[in-house]
């Protein structure tokens, strides 16, 4: 079945007791047993819950995976995956990763003896050079955040596979509608379901999908042992959000395309970073591994006589009324932010500079509003920020 159908039906059947079409929210923490150890598949909701299991089955189907695991946040999913590692192990990680992923590697895992090397994986030779005998995991995010660099998933997986190292792809920005890393050789996919998968900015959640039996078993054990599980209510909301994911992604892509083209031709804009740009340095990879460019756009304003570019960016964001100045992304509403001050404030200033994250860089998460209203809002902010 195609993804539009899977998003609505995978893992779901009308409830056998009532016929309810939508999966019930089972809030029970515990489940009656006919006798000790004799239960209907559920004993305690941290270990398994009917609403969560349904979400996990649906999410797995969307990534073409055999197993799905839901977590209390994207960071909870990441932390749980990183706990498959042992002191002395090494991670090769794409540079320009989600700020919270860098933070957990640098501030939580490093003191526990797990080190990481950050590489620009658009250079496959440098990626191969970063691999060490003790490298036990490769982690990448594409499109990257906030520079929207594109890494060749198949190319990186080939390098890792030669050494028997698992590859985890953070597919939060692209979603399975636009990109399917498992089919390109990845071992597992991680999502912040807070973003596009739920899509309505009302849940914090994470998901991992994999077809690797050993990895799935390890993660299933850690999910229960470490306990970073989502509430049944949140699982219900994400499951509901998934049903419209393919439709929403269509609109995120078409609105994004329109806005990006408008920004690229705007005299007040000095640079646009956008995976759908014909001039994107990894254009060929985009065409090969993505079905669409997504809704994320980053750009830099031209300076003004009234101060630095960063000052102008601040004025620009404050002047918007349809766009909301906020962290996060992937919701139905358009969001805008300054990575250096907001989402990437935990990344050291020199690292930000090396990655090209200027203090004035602006990141947009294009929502699904009428695109003319979005253009009008930006246009107004351009003039008042000059
Ligand atoms: C938000 C985000 C995360 C972390 O997810 P949370 O749900 O906020 O914990 C990880 N990766 C990417 C790409 C993200 O955007």
Can you characterise this structure?
The protein is α/β, with parallel strands linked by helices and 386 residues long. The protein folds into 2 domains: 3-242, Type I PLP-dependent aspartate aminotransferase-like (Major domain) (Aspartate Aminotransferase, domain 2, 3-Layer(aba) Sandwich), CATH 3.40.640.10; 246-385, Aspartate Aminotransferase, domain 1 (Alpha-Beta Complex), CATH 3.90.1150. Helices cover 38% and strands 15% of the residues. The chain has 14 helices and 12 strands. The chain has helices at 3-9, 50-62, 74-82, 99-109, 124-130, 153-162, 175-178, 213-226, 232-243, 245-264, 283-289, 309-318, 349-355, 371-385; strands at residues 67-71, 90-94, 115-119, 135-141, 167-170, 188-192, 206-210, 269-273, 296-301, 324-325, 335-337, 362-365. The strands form 2 sheets. The chain has a 7-stranded mixed beta sheet with strand order 1-7-6-5-4-2-3, with helices on both faces. Strands 8-9-12-11-10 form a 5-stranded mixed beta sheet. It is globular, with a radius of gyration of 21 Å. The N and C termini lie far apart (51 Å). The model has no long low-confidence stretch (mean pLDDT 96). The structure holds pyridoxal-5'-phosphate (PLP). Residues 73-75, 98, 100-101, 141, 145, 170, 172-173, 192, 194-195, 204, 206 line the site of pyridoxal-5'-phosphate (PLP).
């Amino acid at each position: 079945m195609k993804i539009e159908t899977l998003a609505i039906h995978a893992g779901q059947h009308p409830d056998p007791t009532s016929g309810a079409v939508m999966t019930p929210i089972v809030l029970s923490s515990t489940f009656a047993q006919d006798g000790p150890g004799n239960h209907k598949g559920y004993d305690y909701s941290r270990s398994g819950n009917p609403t969560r299991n349904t979400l996990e089955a649906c999410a797995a189907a969307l990534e073409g995976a055999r197993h799905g695991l839901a977590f209390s946040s994207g960071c909870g999913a990441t932390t749980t995956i990183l706990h498959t590692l042992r002191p002395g192990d090494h991670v090769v990680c794409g540079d320009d990763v989600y700020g919270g992923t860098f933070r957990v590697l640098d501030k939580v895992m490093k003191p526990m003896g797990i080190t990481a090397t950050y590489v620009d994986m658009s250079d496959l030779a440098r990626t191969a050079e970063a691999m060490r005998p003790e490298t036990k995991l490769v982690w990448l995010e594409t499109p990257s955040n906030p520079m929207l660099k594109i890494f060749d998933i198949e190319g990186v997986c080939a390098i890792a596979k030669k050494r028997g190292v698992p590859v985890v792809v953070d597919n939060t920005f692209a979603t399975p509608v636009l990109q399917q890393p498992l089919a390109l050789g990845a071992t597992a996919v991680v999502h912040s379901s807070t973003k596009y998968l739920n899509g309505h900015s009302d849940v914090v959640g994470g998901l991992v999908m994999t077809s690797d039996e050993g990895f799935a078993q390890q993660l299933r054990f850690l999910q229960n042992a470490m306990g970073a599980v989502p509430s049944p209510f949140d699982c219900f909301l994400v499951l509901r959000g998934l049903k419209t994911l393919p439709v929403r992604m269509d609109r995120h892509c078409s609105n994004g395309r329109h806005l990006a083209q408008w920004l690229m031709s705007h005299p007040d804009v000095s640079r646009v970073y956008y995976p759908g740009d014909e001039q994107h340095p990894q254009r060929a990879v985009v065409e090969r591994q993505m079905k669409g460019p997504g809704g994320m756009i980053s750009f830099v304003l031209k300076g003004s006589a009234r101060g630095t570019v960063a000052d102008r960016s601040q004025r620009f964001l404050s002047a918007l009324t349809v766009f909301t100045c906020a962290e996060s992304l992937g919701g139905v509403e358009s969001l805008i932010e300054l990575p250096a001050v907001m989402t990437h404030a935990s990344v050291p200033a020199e690292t930000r500079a090396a990655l090209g994250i200027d203090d004035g860089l602006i990141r947009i998460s294009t929502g699904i509003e009428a695109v003319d209203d979005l253009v009008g809002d930006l246009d107004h902010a351009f003039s008042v920020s000059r």
